[in-house]
Amino acid sequence: MSANPLQPFVNLIPAPFRNRYILLLTVFFFWMIFIDKHDVITQWRLQKTKDKLEQDKAYYAKKIQEAERQRKNLQKNGEQFAREKYYMKKEGEDVFIIEEEK
To answer: Buried (b) or exposed (e) across 69-94, using 16+ Cβ within 10 A?
Structure first.
Protein backbone atom coordinates (compact mmCIF):
# COMPACT_ATOMS: atom_id res chain seq x y z
CA MET A 1 0.00 0.00 0.00
CA SER A 2 1.68 3.20 -1.18
CA ALA A 3 -0.65 5.91 0.03
CA ASN A 4 0.48 9.46 -0.44
CA PRO A 5 1.38 10.95 2.97
CA LEU A 6 0.38 14.40 1.72
CA GLN A 7 -3.12 13.27 0.66
CA PRO A 8 -4.87 14.93 3.66
CA PHE A 9 -3.26 18.25 2.75
CA VAL A 10 -4.09 17.83 -0.93
CA ASN A 11 -7.73 17.24 -0.02
CA LEU A 12 -7.81 20.64 1.72
CA ILE A 13 -7.05 22.41 -1.60
CA PRO A 14 -10.22 23.30 -3.54
CA ALA A 15 -10.85 20.97 -6.47
CA PRO A 16 -10.13 23.46 -9.31
CA PHE A 17 -6.69 24.20 -7.86
CA ARG A 18 -5.71 20.54 -7.82
CA ASN A 19 -5.46 20.63 -11.60
CA ARG A 20 -1.78 21.08 -12.39
CA TYR A 21 -2.43 23.51 -15.26
CA ILE A 22 -4.55 25.77 -13.08
CA LEU A 23 -1.93 25.51 -10.36
CA LEU A 24 0.82 26.38 -12.85
CA LEU A 25 -1.14 29.38 -14.17
CA THR A 26 -1.81 30.56 -10.61
CA VAL A 27 1.87 30.35 -9.72
CA PHE A 28 2.80 32.09 -12.99
CA PHE A 29 0.40 35.00 -12.38
CA PHE A 30 1.49 35.32 -8.76
CA TRP A 31 5.10 35.44 -9.94
CA MET A 32 4.38 38.06 -12.63
CA ILE A 33 2.30 40.27 -10.35
CA PHE A 34 4.37 40.26 -7.16
CA ILE A 35 7.85 38.76 -7.58
CA ASP A 36 9.14 39.45 -11.10
CA LYS A 37 11.53 42.32 -11.83
CA HIS A 38 8.81 43.98 -13.95
CA ASP A 39 5.92 43.37 -11.56
CA VAL A 40 2.71 45.38 -11.48
CA ILE A 41 3.72 47.51 -8.49
CA THR A 42 7.00 48.52 -10.14
CA GLN A 43 5.20 49.35 -13.38
CA TRP A 44 2.70 51.50 -11.47
CA ARG A 45 5.52 53.42 -9.75
CA LEU A 46 7.33 53.89 -13.04
CA GLN A 47 4.15 55.23 -14.65
CA LYS A 48 3.68 57.72 -11.80
CA THR A 49 7.30 58.86 -12.19
CA LYS A 50 6.85 59.19 -15.95
CA ASP A 51 3.70 61.28 -15.50
CA LYS A 52 5.48 63.56 -13.01
CA LEU A 53 8.42 64.01 -15.38
CA GLU A 54 6.07 64.87 -18.25
CA GLN A 55 4.39 67.50 -16.07
CA ASP A 56 7.80 68.91 -15.17
CA LYS A 57 8.77 68.94 -18.84
CA ALA A 58 5.66 70.92 -19.77
CA TYR A 59 6.24 73.34 -16.89
CA TYR A 60 9.87 73.98 -17.87
CA ALA A 61 8.98 74.31 -21.56
CA LYS A 62 6.51 77.04 -20.58
CA LYS A 63 9.18 78.74 -18.43
CA ILE A 64 11.69 78.57 -21.32
CA GLN A 65 9.20 80.22 -23.68
CA GLU A 66 8.58 82.95 -21.13
CA ALA A 67 12.32 83.51 -20.64
CA GLU A 68 12.84 83.66 -24.42
CA ARG A 69 10.07 86.25 -24.72
CA GLN A 70 11.66 88.31 -21.94
CA ARG A 71 15.10 88.01 -23.55
CA LYS A 72 13.77 89.25 -26.91
CA ASN A 73 11.95 92.08 -25.17
CA LEU A 74 15.12 92.98 -23.30
CA GLN A 75 17.15 93.08 -26.50
CA LYS A 76 14.51 95.24 -28.17
CA ASN A 77 13.71 97.59 -25.27
CA GLY A 78 16.71 97.48 -22.91
CA GLU A 79 16.27 100.97 -21.54
CA GLN A 80 12.54 100.53 -20.93
CA PHE A 81 13.19 97.20 -19.18
CA ALA A 82 15.84 98.73 -16.89
CA ARG A 83 13.59 101.68 -16.01
CA GLU A 84 10.51 99.51 -15.25
CA LYS A 85 12.14 96.57 -13.57
CA TYR A 86 15.05 98.12 -11.69
CA TYR A 87 13.83 101.74 -11.43
CA MET A 88 16.93 103.09 -13.13
CA LYS A 89 16.97 106.70 -14.20
CA LYS A 90 19.06 109.16 -16.14
CA GLU A 91 21.00 111.81 -14.34
CA GLY A 92 18.76 114.69 -13.29
CA GLU A 93 15.52 112.71 -13.59
CA ASP A 94 13.07 111.95 -10.82
CA VAL A 95 11.35 108.57 -10.64
CA PHE A 96 7.85 108.25 -9.23
CA ILE A 97 6.56 104.78 -8.40
CA ILE A 98 2.80 104.40 -8.49
CA GLU A 99 1.44 101.14 -7.13
CA GLU A 100 -2.13 100.07 -7.72
CA GLU A 101 -4.11 98.85 -4.75
CA LYS A 102 -5.69 95.43 -5.06
So the answer is: eeeeeeeeeeeeeeeeeeeeeeeeee
pLDDT interval class at 7 (50, 70, 90):
confident
Cβ partners under 8 Å of residue 10, min gap 6: 4, 18
Reported as a single tens digit per residue, the pLDDT across 87-101 is 778 888 887 778 888
pLDDT higher than 70, residue 1: no
Q: Assign 3-class secondary structure to the chain.
A: CCCCCCHHHHHHCCHHHHCHHHHHHHHHHHHHHHHCCCCHHHHHHHHHHHHHHHHHHHHHHHHHHHHHHHHHHHHHCHHHHHHHHHCCCCCCCCCCCCCCCC
